[in-house]
Amino acid sequence: xxxxxxxxxxxxxxxxxxxxxxxxxxxxxxxxxxxxxxxxxxxxxxxxxxxxxxxxxxxxxxxxxxxxxxxxxxxxxxxxxxxxxxxxxxxxxxxxxxxxxxxxxxxxxxxxxxxxxxxxxxxxxxxxxxxxxxxxxxxxxxxxxxxxxxxxxxxxxxxxxxxxxxxxxxxxxxxxxxxxxxxxxxxxxxxxxxxxxxxxxxxxxx
Amino acid sequence: xxxxxxxxxxxxxxxxxxxxxxxxxxxxxxxxxxxxxxxxxxxxxxxxxxxxxxxxxxxxxxxxxxxxxxxxxxxxxxxxxxxxxxxxxxxxxxxxxxxxxxxxxxxxxxxxxxxxxxxxxxxxxxxxxxxxxxxxxxxxxxxxxxxxxxxxxxxxxxxxxxxxxxxxxxxxxxxxxxxxxxxxxxxxxxxxxxxxxxxxxxxxxxxxxxxxxxxxxxxxxxxxxxxxxxxxxxxxxxxxxxxxxxxxxxxxxxxxxxxxxxxxxxxxxxxxxxxxxxxxxxxxxxxxxxxxxxxxxxxxxxxxxxxxxxxxxxxxxxxxxxxxxxxxxxxxxxxxxxxxxxxxxxxxxxxxxxxxxxxxxxxxxxxxxxxxxxxxxxxxxxxxxxxxxxxxxxxxxxxxxxxxxxxxxxxxxxxxxxxxxxxxxxxxxxxxxxxxxxxxxxxxxxxxxxxxxxxxxxxxxxxxxxxxxxxxxxxxxxxxxxxxxxxxxxxxxxxxxxxxxxxxxxxxxxxxxxxxxxxxxxxxxxxxxxxxxxxxxxxxxxxxxxxxxxxxxxxxxxxxxxxxxxxxxxxxxxxxxxxxxxxx
Lengths: 206, 584
Fold this sequence. Notes:
The complex is a heterodimer of chains A (about 210) and B (about 575). With about 210 residues, chain A is of the alpha+beta class.
């Protein structure tokens, strides 16, 4: 290593800045110039995701989970629209720590912004659906209170609230040891496009 | 000279020294001669360690045996923005354990960005009989159980401040551990806690502590309980409300307004979570005497914000969301002539389009109207060189200037030029500038300006800026008082670092992430300069498994007299001589 640490000459004009950039980044996720593009890519992906998802189905008497964490791992288990909230309100994965806002301030923002953004995205999803004549499948995420992992189901496979309820019980039965008669304790609720929580069964299945 | 120094008896010198509080002055005193060094070290009561790894607990204790107050800082500043992975370090326990035996009369512990465990808190609670002040700023690793130990055991506790810490909030029951005989509380800040404390316990605590001057509640305290609390503490100087939202009810409003009016000493307000405009008038009576207002959690809009700030003629510090908009900042400029510090935070930082009408104009207005403004943190979505130059000319007394333009590398939106000249004007006019964070499109030229003019600059934060190593070289070679430099996503590589390696020993720390510094250069720095810890952070695996020319993910260099640390996690490698041999 022949570099002289205490060299004090100024750089000559021939110093090629690109020479430094030319150091092949070994596994930089994005090169510096691409960071801006990838931010846009991520939002573009966002719009595609919206078309696949619909209002959240939550299975509990307390639809609004408390914001219990902001760790990356647990994010993956939340419903798609909550996930979208987090993708919008949380930092873009490509530019970690930008804009430079303290994590706990972001947490407070998330708690304040979530209801509004949720509504906007639901409206966007609904209108996309109208404009594009429906979808082949209606996947929704179902989360059960007390169970960390949510499940995804295709609503088109069911034709009544009862069959839906039965399948959900079976599905979640594997996580919890549910007794057969405890099914009466659970209620099915969903959130419509205005963000209001409604009990399933009030409106006809169609 | 020697004769003079020894002609005063020790006690006289010690008495004289007792009037010297500032660390720099104390350090200067200790360097006059050996006897002054000895006298000074025995009577130093307060120590500040800006980087907990710069020195070891035994070294501190050996030199200063009679310390009463300790302040420590741990993680690098960029840890605030999730750039430092979990487990990096900054553990306070070794310090507490060492001080438990060495400083039985320790009274104050102030920590920032450190990992504090319940064990550490329990040790504090039982080791220091005269413990008075605990400030945990942006700390983590402890739960409300640790707080219960402090509450139960620290009979002389005056201050418990948990500002912005991440607490494992098991329950609010900890507050009830303050015994009924405990009356010495002066300052309590629990605003970061999520769970509900017992309101009756809180009210009784507030009621029996006549010296209480600062009370920052958490969001779980509902608005209709605030009046009761205030009525028990009319002597409060600083208040953080709980949630500031409730159904508009005349009786709740009038008791709240009455309670606020009764607090004649109130000078600082914060909290205001979920604030509803209807309850804002309750604080109007005390607005004229407020000096500090933190509305950065209040989602109220510019009309209500404008009405509010227009009544705060004594305001010196305002923290607010960008809902205030340019129009609110114009009102601020018109009515708040004593303003010294302004922080404007983004309400929707991740939205691509602006959601409010807050532009560079707002900041320009405040810089024009507020002659004492010297500290700014401003998030916005557009800026021009002209605006920056105007701000610079208006406010040559600026000492802290932090600008963040949401979009990285955003140019002057009118001329589409880089913002080099704008920031150049800032450093040229603001000769006492101590802290600077830059934003927008910036070339090497801005660094040339900084190197040439920012002679008092102590802390610089740079992101997505510069073209080449020349930029970094200008800063390292020009900024004589630079202590902390943090850089992310800039094309700076080995050359500037190696050429200016000696400079690094005069600074507290250097952070570089997503730049182009090679592993080879890191090794070289670590080996050649023993009093620097050169730490490479790389979650891709050992840097030795990649070519030497490969850039490291993150680099943290800091000066130290304690040698390399031993509590590094798996993704941090130290580049000191011995380790480097092991790596290769």
